[in-house]
Amino acid sequence: MNAVPPQSRKRWLWLAIALAVVLLGVFWVFIKKPAEPKPEAEAAPRPSLTVTVAKPTRGNLPIRLQANGNITAWQEASVGAEVNGLRLASVNVNVGDVVRKGQVLAVFANETTKADSLQSQASLAQAEASFENAKADADRARSIQDTGALSKSQVAQYLTQERVARAQLEAAKAAFGATEVRLGNTRVLAPDDGVISARTATVGAVVGAGQELFRMVRQSRMEWRGEVTPNEVGRVRVGQKVQVTAATGLEITGQVRAIAPSADPQTRNILVFVDLPRHAELKAGTFAKGSFDLGQSDALTVPSQAIVVRDGSNYVFVIDAQSKANQRKVQTGRRVDDRVEVLDGLKPDEAVAVQGAGFLNEADLVKVVQ
What we know:
Structural class: alpha+beta
Strand order of the largest sheet: 2-11-14-13-12-15
Radius of gyration: 51 Å
Distance between the termini: 99 Å
Number of helices: 3
Oligomer: single chain
């Protein structure tokens, strides 16, 4: 057996030493590496939003019946022509003008009527003279009828002439009066205080008797005609106060004047007539909302900011002891100022999110601040 040369043995020895050093290094780095410190406990979750909370409160809220309707004129007057075939000489008012009773609104050309009046006046004077002559003859006949100077037929003739002359005088008076009325009707007068709401009169037009020239709102008074259902009308009383909100935002207090005895055949609603105080912003034909005051009742309320509307429903977020938000569907009722009545879905001792409620979701962790 051949012996290993000394150089080979030295080479293998150095290789064994190098391998031992490498293995020792690996053991030191990977096997004997000091254990890393264990991670600390997982950090507590952070709140997603800061909110304020409030508990529901109990108190008296007014009971109100809401209704819609229109503002209309309390009464309208139609001012028309009372003469036929005359020309309008002047028109003195326009739409929106405030007028007084007896004020001249328009004037017709009156030359023809003046001539007719003068002719009737002359006929009247002639009838008066004829009557005075016939009366004098009749008086003389009556004074001598017992003397036999006149026959009975002659006396009767004088008395008949007197009666005929009297009748002709009355007819002449009536004719003269008619012409005076016709002459007076050439001036169109306001039948009452009020405001002109429509005008069809045109200077130079020839109109017929009865044709409307103006329309006016009597005494400038307006009323609100609210529509209520048959189920609600029993809660309304004459004399009741009504808060009316006009289309312009004007809020005005009215009073129930009357309730219609029958319902509208198309809508099945019943009209309630509410007198309104005079105000320049009230315009006939405009829409308005009304609120009937029916008294007060106890209610559980929350701030209006606490109500969140989602998918057509109302919700609140109840904040529990762990500061988590729990979405709760509620049924709401009356709204007064910044308070909303909660009819169902919330207990009196539960706190709800107020500011920031609209940004919350189910199970969100919140930070509650005052």
